[in-house]
């Protein structure tokens, strides 16, 4: 099981702060596609992804037991 943590607008759109994904191994890109298809989180392609508190690339693998944070862009002024 993979734990996915959502923040800011993503939490509001998914109506939850935490999701669980039951997959053996998938890439960050595959996870993004699942979040888009299952939860319509289209903004996920603009987000930073961290696996176990380390930033990840789209080709990095996510394994069972990992915690993934989906961090939306921050704007300020």
Automatic annotation (TrEMBL):
One of its GO terms (molecular function) is nucleotide binding. InterPro entries: Beta-grasp_dom_sf, MOCS2A, Mopterin_synth/thiamin_S_b, ThiS/MoaD-like. One of its GO terms (biological process) is Mo-molybdopterin cofactor biosynthetic process. Signal peptide: none annotated. One of its GO terms (cellular component) is molybdopterin adenylyltransferase complex. It comes from the Bacteria. Pathway: Cofactor biosynthesis; molybdopterin biosynthesis. Keywords: Molybdenum cofactor biosynthesis, Nucleotide-binding. Pfam families: ThiS. CDD domains: Ubl_MoaD (cd00754). The keyword Ribosomal protein does not apply. Heterotetramer of 2 MoaD subunits and 2 MoaE subunits. Forms a stable heterotetrameric complex of 2 MoaD and 2 MoeB during adenylation of MoaD by MoeB. During catalysis MoaD shuttles between the two heterotetrameric complexes. NCBIfam families: moaD (TIGR01682). Belongs to the MoaD family. Involved in sulfur transfer in the conversion of molybdopterin precursor Z to molybdopterin. This is Molybdopterin synthase sulfur carrier subunit. It comes from Gracilibacillus halophilus YIM-C55.5. The lineage of its organism: Bacteria, Bacillati, Bacillota, Bacilli, Bacillales.
